[in-house]
Specification:
It is a single chain. By secondary structure, the chain is an alpha/beta fold. The protein contains 16 helices and 13 strands. The protein has three domains: 137 residues, Fumarase C, Chain B, domain 1, CATH 1.10.275; 64 residues, no CATH class; 215 residues, Rossmann fold (3-Layer(aba) Sandwich). It is 48% helix and 12% strand. A hairpin with a 4-residue loop joins β4 and β5.
């Protein structure tokens, strides 16, 4: 099996095996059951579904006013445990009743029975998993859609037992190294490396410790095609979005480049702040501003950006990967801050806590590799062909002032590096002039 863009595989697998339970889903299953098999048992499931809906609604109202209650849950909230148990028990009873109903011969009725049984059985299964949740799972409540999520703390064992021991696997991507080696990414996929290499393997299975790693390099001459600008003078990022100094720096760089900029932000707050600032400072320049809004499809935005060579595109995480705009429309990629995981992101924070509890460093083992991966992806938006030239500007001084900065830099394309803004702005002006000619 070949896994392309393998740097995303751990997250995709986590998403695939994450269980979700909403009151709407339970109520839909109850309505199907009541229509197919009316009676006391279906009524009991309907009553449980309604109680669960009320409990979820009340809990959502409660935590919307209490930010400390949001994020990962160590256990099922007391107000939800009894309703979930009632859903599980009533759904299981209904499945048993459907199984006992063997006298149906009509194919259409059999198909309907299968649909109802599948929907109710799924509710019973998910509710049961929630009630049996152990310390190897991560539970959280998502208030926007009033959803309980249950994810495994790690998926490497799932991938190891169901994939890597069954068939040879080739994992490939432009961004698989963190700090000049493959170990962190290989572990996340489930390969056994270093001290993990003594994992037990059944006779006849493929050994995931028999892993070979190869860096085939790049066709691009990064040091001659691009500049990595890392201004030291900017203040460290805070929680309130980009500082005024960062916004001023961004405006000056875009002015020098004559537009032609992809500006990547780690939050919507950053996108909105930059949009407001740039519409003021660039108002007299022939530069059109394309700003991503919540819910926007990426494709049309990128098409507009590519067609208008003096435009700029401001966006958040969905633009950090997969955007391919070679040529003169993108000679500057600006990144507002190192994209560390948010501290309230449930799965990443749980994995980080586990690393800390095991005597390691959650920050260095979880947060830094994740940031390095995204930073490499964002930086990779600049050089898309052997003719491309330009600048990547990381407007976060921590990449040069903190010790972990070297790990991040060693995970990125080897662009020529400088902290001299005058050199960078002069380079952008010359490049913009040559593009216009």
């Amino acid at each position: 099996m070949i896994l392309d863009e393998a740097h995303e595989f751990m997250d995709r697998t986590t998403q695939a095996v994450t269980e979700e339970l909403t009151s709407g889903r339970v109520q839909r299953a109850a309505a199907m059951a009541r229509k197919y098999l009316p009676g006391k048992v279906s009524d009991g499931f309907t009553s449980a579904a309604d109680s669960f809906h009320d409990a979820m609604s009340d809990y959502g109202d409660q935590i919307k006013r209490d930010f400390s209650a949001q994020g990962r849950l160590e256990e099922i909230p007391m107000s939800l445990e009894a309703p979930i148990r009632k859903v599980k028990e009533s759904a299981s009873a209904l499945v048993q009743l459907i199984n006992a109903d063997d006298e149906i011969i009509d194919p259409d009725s059999n198909a309907e029975r299968a649909r109802v049984k599948g929907a109710v059985q799924e509710i019973a299964t998910i509710a049961g998993k929630l009630l049996k949740m152990g310390d190897q799972h991560v539970l959280w409540y998502e208030p926007t859609f009033s959803t309980l999520h249950l994810a495994p703390l790690s998926v490497s064992h799932i991938l190891r037992s169901n994939l890597l021991t069954k068939t040879p696997v080739i994992a490939t991507s432009a961004t698989l190294t963190v700090g000049n080696n493959f170990d962190a990414m290989a572990r996340s996929i489930g390969f056994a490396v270093g001290s993990d290499a003594d994992v037990d393997v059944e006779t006849g299975d493929i050994d995931p410790a028999n892993v070979q790693m190869l860096d085939v390099g790049s066709p691009f001459d990064f040091a001659n095609q691009g500049v990595l600008y890392m201004p030291k003078h900017l203040p460290e990022p805070g929680r309130d979005g980009p500082s005024q100094e960062v916004l001023d720096e961004l405006g000056e760089l875009i002015d020098a480049a004559g537009g032609r900029t992809l500006a990547l932000f780690s939050s919507w707050r950053g996108v909105e702040a930059a949009d407001t600032h740039l519409r003021k400072v660039l108002v007299d320049l022939p530069i059109s501003i394309i700003t991503q809004k919540r819910g926007d499809a990426v494709g049309p935005l990128v098409e507009r950006f590519a067609k208008d060579e003096t435009s700029i595109l401001l966006g958040t995480m969905s633009l950090w990967q997969g955007v391919d705009v070679p040529g003169n429309s993108c000679i500057l990629v600006a990144i507002d801050r190192i994209p560390f995981p948010r501290p309230d992101e449930p799965v990443m924070s749980a994995r980080s806590s586990l690393a800390d509890a095991s005597g390691g460093s959650g920050f260095m083992q979880v947060s830094v590799p994740r940031a390095a991966l995204l930073l490499a992806q964002g930086t990779g938006r600049l050089i898309r062909s052997i003719e491309d030239r330009g600048v990547v500007a990381i407007l976060d001084s921590r990449i040069v002032t903190k010790r972990y900065g070297s790990v991040l830099l060693n995970s990125m394309p080897p662009l020529w590096r400088t902290s001299d803004g005058a050199i960078v702005r002069d380079s952008l002006r010359r490049l913009a002039t040559s593009v216009e000619e």
